[in-house]
Every structure is written in structure tokens, then in C-alpha cells.
Amino acid sequence: MAAPSADGEAQLKRQADEVRALKSSIGATKAEVDEAIAKLLELKSALEPLQKAAHAAKSSAEAEAAEAAKKANIAKAEADKVAAREKKKAAAAAKSAAKAAGADAPPADGAADGAGKGGGKGGKDRGDGASKLTGGKPTGGKPPVAAPDATSPPAPAVPPTAAAAAIGNSNREFVVRHSASCAPVLSFAAAKLGGLSAHFVAHAEPGVVCLIPTSHGGGRLCGDVRIARYFAALAHPARAVAGPPPPALPPARGTDALAPPPELVALALARARADEWLERADAELRTAGAAGLAELDRALAMRTYLAGPEPSLADAAVFAALSANGEWARAKGAAGDKGAEYAHVSRWHAHVSALPAFSALELSFLGGKAKGGSFEIDLPGAERGKVVMRFAPEPSGFLHIGHAKAALLSDHFATQFDGTLILRYDDTNPSKEKGEYEAAILADVCRLGLRPNRITHTSDYFEQLIGAQRAMIERGDAYVDPSPAEVQQKGRFARQPSFYRDAPVAESLRLFDAMLAGTEEGRQCCVRAKMDYASENGTLRDPTTFRCNMTPHHSTGERYKAYPTYDFACPWVDAHEGVTHALRDRQYKDRDAQYHRMAELLRVRRVELWSFSRMNFKMCLLSKRKLQWFVDEGRVTGWDDERMPTIQGLLRRGLSVEGLRHFILLQGASLNGNLMDWDKIWAENRKLIDARAKRFTALTAHNLVHLELERADGADAPPLCAEARSLPAHKKAPELGMKLKWYSSSLLLDQTDAALIADGEEVTLMDWGNAIVTQITRDTAAGSVTRLRARLHLAGDVKATKKKLTWLCADGPQMPMPNVRVELVDIDHLICKDSLEEDDALSADAPFLNKCTKETHAALAEPGVRTLQRGETLQVERRGYYIVDRPYTRPADPMRLIFVPDGKNMYGYRKPQL
Prior knowledge:
Elements: H1 6-24, H2 30-100, H3 162-167, E1 174-178, H4 185-194, E2 198-202, E3 208-211, E4 220-222, H5 224-235, H6 262-285, H7 290-299, H8 313-322, H9 326-335, H10 343-353, H11 356-365, H12 372-375, E5 388-391, H13 401-416, E6 420-425, H14 435-447, E7 454-457, H15 462-475, E8 478-481, H16 485-494, H17 505-517, E9 526-529, E10 544-548, E11 562-564, H18 566-576, E12 581-585, H19 591-602, E13 608-612, H20 624-632, H21 647-653, H22 657-666, H23 678-689, E14 694-696, E15 698-700, E16 705-709, E17 723-728, E18 738-743, E19 746-749, H24 751-755, E20 762-765, E21 769-779, E22 784-793, E23 804-805, E24 808-809, E25 820-827, E26 854-861, E27 873-876, E28 880-886, E29 895-900
Parallel strand pairs: 1-2, 5-6, 6-7, 12-13, 14-27, 16-22, 20-23, 25-29
Antiparallel strand pairs: 1-3, 3-4, 8-9, 9-10, 10-11, 15-26, 16-19, 17-18, 19-24, 20-21, 21-22, 25-26, 27-28, 28-29
Helix pairs in contact: 1-2, 4-5, 4-8, 4-11, 6-8, 13-22, 15-17, 18-19, 22-23
GO biological process, one term: glutamyl-tRNA aminoacylation
Organism: Diacronema lutheri
Region (Disordered): 57-162
């Protein structure tokens, strides 16, 4: 019987993949699955007889082949044993002969390489906008790697470490193929929102098809919506399409114990709303007129996003539909993003357009152009799917806000062009670098939401860089200079050539070997590239490319004694890792010419350089040396102190990653290096955190005033005992869930509020209603109010009152859940001068040091704050935004809340506005 054809086998496999994909698809119907299974069974029945016959024939042939292979292996093993015995005898004979001649046996391969590396003459700032930091590679030597030919193709990538695999793995990449007429809008948005590694390619096959990697079960999935739902479920298994569920709350008194928890109700509503807009986006909104957009405007009136507290597929679907809507184009053209016709749609559209996932979607599939200051960032020569960016910090400290710009811009370009991002530790100076810094950098990269495709080290290529340096010397493009550093500096300043510039190649090679061995003679030398010693550009005056350093390297130990400089290693590693575009700080613009000239001497391909302006803020230090002084002097608790401009410090203070990214992209391609005010970045941050900040009440604990609500008949009677009512945690964001608010006849007011109330005045108790003050008891000696009495007047007009008061229930036997002790922390700048000059020395009595950088205020907060977790943002009513630095653990330990500036107020404690 004939063997089954290859086409038949392939058809069977495709059908099996289709069944598997349909079973795992959220949107597949039972009828579709049953039909696919029936077709699969039919194909199996047709191929089964052919497969059995082919298997029998194959088994017979395989048995014969296995027997022959077994005999061959036995013969080879015997031959290997004989060869090993002969080799051992020859080695013993050679050793005996050498001993008889009075000579030592030659060293083993690699023993003369030395065992340690050093870093050398200073470590100047490099021009890539990333001063360098570290991760956690084990110590120990590396096997030598043969240096490649200078014109060879890029070396294969070093396998990622375990930490790298946790961030991104190209072996797990999804491939989404789509036809020219069927853009994968939703699946693209879902992949970007969920941070999934997916490659989108145009294909002749009709529709949208996702090739699922073997790490996720393999197979194919068809249809943009199905693929999008699959991606959403992978990224957020607990919430699929909508936002995260709010934390669980105990049921309020009087509620049905069997009723579903409020957080599940909110999640179900968000999912239903997402489904609704997914269906309506393509069916209605693409062609909707004024009435349809007006309805969308009403739906967005109280929401930041269409479904849930985070952007979802619903937002992506509506965003894509509006790109083809004529009425929306007309309204935008007439009034711009601040148009009055559809104000809420305009506000929503401007916000989501600034998110990286939506900007990439617009540029990729919606025919959009980068807008305004936000995204009008041109990357010369960029091709979709071929862009490779790198972020290359030195592991010599913690990342600060200056590094964040280089990191986030690199990630933005990699995302925008569907490219690759490499995190590379530039570990070429062991005098300044530590393994702990590598770990800190990796943690900060994760905090920033970056997902590098690869993690590498410059030290991975030390052997190859040594070979590249040797080749330059042999070609006469570099020489070894044993002159003292002072002599070299004077020669550069005078634009005079070094005495050793034209030394014989053999002599330079001898000295280079002495450097690698770390001999006394070699330690006096450095290698310099032959460029232009008389150039107007000082960076071209024969720059140093290799120097000695006897300090053990945190990763390679004592294997090396000489190390490449950043200026030498960076062009070579960029080219061999496939980098297409490298970002560099504009203040090092003069070094761009050196970078390209070095690449020419190394004979590697040219990498495009893209300059950006460093973020310089008033009253902010970015020098690692100066920041270290504050740590060493105990003026801050560490590099993650909320007063530090490090990534950890700023995130701890409440700056969101989205706010930081949005602010950076708003600057676009601007090369303006002026000092910026902090209020701009905090204002952008406020726009993003407001939608997810739950609202709570907290009062200054000192000198609180008791307010007794009088018992009255009718609906205005206050509760005799405390009772809890379920209220929205954020009135304009119902998807954040509910909170419990306690009510009783005994309340607490802030002393500042109470002092401004007049006898008989009607005031508004927020989240309750109006009350008329009937009695005020004052301490005239202290000038304060001690007690108030009032009568509820819930029928009163809350808009007519001048004073809106925040309040808490007084603790006591009537309160089953007491108020929570909190510390409200205000933070100030470390220095009180806009910018430090070169001669501004740091000392305990320096006039520019801020004498008071932190103030802590004891307060009481409503019981509901105990559900908040560390890093969660909230709004304290009438005071401002705070971030939880220390969550609730027990009554004796107060929570710690740090004030988050909002662009207008830098501090939380100001006179309350009544």
C-alpha cells in the first residue's frame, strides 16, 4: 500500500491545529468547534490505513538501521580507547623528555592570559545618556573566544540569563500574519497593552492568523477579535478584557449575605461594557453621525476609559473606529482636541493617543502621523520589524530620572517600529562597578515596564574586543603609548602627535601583550587610535581605546588586566549585536564624529546615532558622586529615599511610569537643554493617577473638634450607633469598586475648619448632607474651638453652602471599626538652588542645602484605608494625592502616606479651602 502523501499529513496537522485553536478561543462557538472536530475525524479515517502500512515498513527499516548503528558505535568506542591510551603515553614521554632537558612543561592553554581586569584612566560620562549600573552575574572566568574578522557578520547573541528570560524570550514570540485588506487592529492593541512579544507581518493569506509558539501549545488562531481576546487573557488572566477587580470589602449592614461581592459586580459590569463597545465600534461608530458621537460623549462623561480603570480592547476598538469616522474628523478639524462639541470624547482621545500602545497602533495601522510635541520623533532609516535599540547603562550606581529618558525612548522606538530592545551592561571599568548595581538596574528596568528582548554585557565580548584591538594595531590604525597621562593630556591640548605614534607595529604589539599580562611595563601603557591629533574636535585627537586596571572585575574576576574603553567597545558591540539606532545625549554631540570614525577603524557597519536632550530639573542633582554624598552623610535613608531623583525614589514618591513616559514623549525631538520646573511633570502625572486614585478622608490628629449631631425626628435623624454604608471609592470611576463609609451622631472635624464656622451657619458634611450648627464651645485662652453641636438638615441645598467639611466618626464603643492612624509626609528638594556650579562644594554648612527636606504630620483616616496596599495611590479629600509607603499592619503602627505633587501644590499641608 502506498505511503500517505505529504499533503495529506500537512492537511491533517493544519486541521488539528485549527481544532486546538478553536477550543482555546474565547469567541469560538460550539458549532464551529464541532464542525472542525468532525472534519478532523474524517481526515484521520482516510489516512489511517496508509499510515499503518507506512509505519510497518518504516519499523522494519529502522530496526535494521539501529542494529548497524549499534555495531558502528561499538567499533568507534574501541578505537577511541586505543587513541586515548596512545595519547597518554605520548604526553608522558614528552614530559619525561622535558624534565631530562631541565625545562618545565609548557603552561596549559590560556594560563598566560592573566586573571583579572581593571578599568583605568577615569570613567568619564559617555554620550548615550545612560550613566552605567549593574545586574547579577556570577564571578569567575570565561572561556576565551576567538576574535572574529573585523568584516564578519554580527556575532551570535549571548544566551540570556535567567533574569533575562523572565523579561522576554524571542522563542516565545507570537507571529500574527494579516492581509493588506485586514489590519490586525485589536490583536495589535492587545499585544501592546499586555506587553506580549508578537511580530506582525503582512501576508498573502486572507484575514488575520496568529501562529502560536510551542511554549504556548502551538497551533493557529484565526480572526482579529479572537486573537485579541486570547492575548488579553494571556496578559491578564483574572480579568480578560476589562480592568482589575477592586479589593474585597465586607458586606454592609443590612445587605444580603448571599449577594455577590461588590468587586465582582463591578468586574462583571466592566466586562459587559467592554463587550458592548467591541460590538458597537465596528458596527456603528465607524459611520456614526452626530447622534452616535453624542452618545459616546455621554458614556465617557464620568470615565477615563470605556471599561475598567485601565485601557482595554474596548478603548482600542473605539479608537480605531473613530479614525475612520467622518463626523469625528470634521469635529476635530473645526475645534481641535479641545473641541466643545464632544468634550469628553476629545479628552479621552487626547489621553489614549498619548499612550504608547495607541500611538504605535495609530502609526502602524490607522494611517496616523506622529502628533504635536508628543510623538513627532523621526528615527532616520527606521524600517518596521528591523529596528534594534539598546539601553546601555554602566553598573556603577542606581538609575535616575536622566537614565529613564534614554531607557523609555529606546523602548518607545522599539515598540513603535515593532523592533528589538537590548539591555546591555557596559561593564568596562571595574574600579567603579559592582554586581549589586546590575541587580538594581534590572529591577528599575522592570519597574519602568521595559521588556528587553535580550540582556547582554560588554564583558561578554572582551576576548573579541582584544582581537579587534590587535587587528587595528597590526593594520597601523592604533598604537601603544607608554607616555604618562599628563604628557598625553598636554599633547592633546597642544594638538601635537605622541612621540610613539609612529612606533613600529611589532613594538606596539609587544607592549599590548604586556598590558594584557599586567606587567609593570604594561601598566604604564595605553592603546590609542590613530585619528586626527590636530583636529578642532578634541575627541578625535587619538583617543584611548585600551587601558590597564588591576582591580578585579565583578563578573570575570581577575582574568583580565586591561580593558577596552567605552569609546572603543561601544561601536564594535553595537554593530555586532545588530543595533540599528543608538540614542546619545546631545551634550556629547562632539563625540558622534569619534563614534563613526572608530567604527571605520574597526571596519564594522555604521550605526545611526539619535541625539536627545537630557532632562535637567531645577533644584535637582543627577551627579552620582554628589548623590552618594547625601547617602554617606545620612541626609537620606538610601538610594531609594523618596527625596532622591533615582527611579526608585521618584516612584516611591508617587510618580507613575505612565506619567514619566508621557512627559518624556511630550518633549519629542526637542534638543532644548534648559532647566525645567518640576510642576510640568507632576501635572502630567496627575492626569493619569486621578482616574485610579480612590477617595478617602483624613484629618490632622492634633486638636480635633467633636461635633455632636442632635437627635431629631424624621428622615434627618442621625444614627444613634455607628453604621456603615457602601459608597463608590471614586464617584467618577465606578469600576474602582465600593468602600465602607461609617456614620454616627458623634463626629470629628479639623480644628482649622471648626474655627471658621459661625453660630447658626448651615454647612455641608461631605458624603452626607447639610447640617445647621446650633452651638459652638470655644477655649478663648487657647483661641480654639472645643466642641460643636449641629442638627442634620438633609433637605438643604448643598450648592448653597459656603463650607464643605470633611469628617470622621469619633472612635468609641459605638464604632466597631476604629479610625486608622496615619502619617502624612511632605517632601522638599535636597537643595534650594536651581543649579549647582562647578565650585559649589557639598559640605554640612553649604548655603544651598535645604535645611528641612521632610515634614511628617500625624493624622486619623477613615477605616477603609486599611485595605490599601503599598504603592497604591489615593486622594485625601481636600488635601491632595498620596501614595501608600507603609500599609496598615496593626493599630499600633501608623500607615505612612507620602504627598504626591499635582503641578500646583508641592506640599499637602496648606490652609484648607472651604
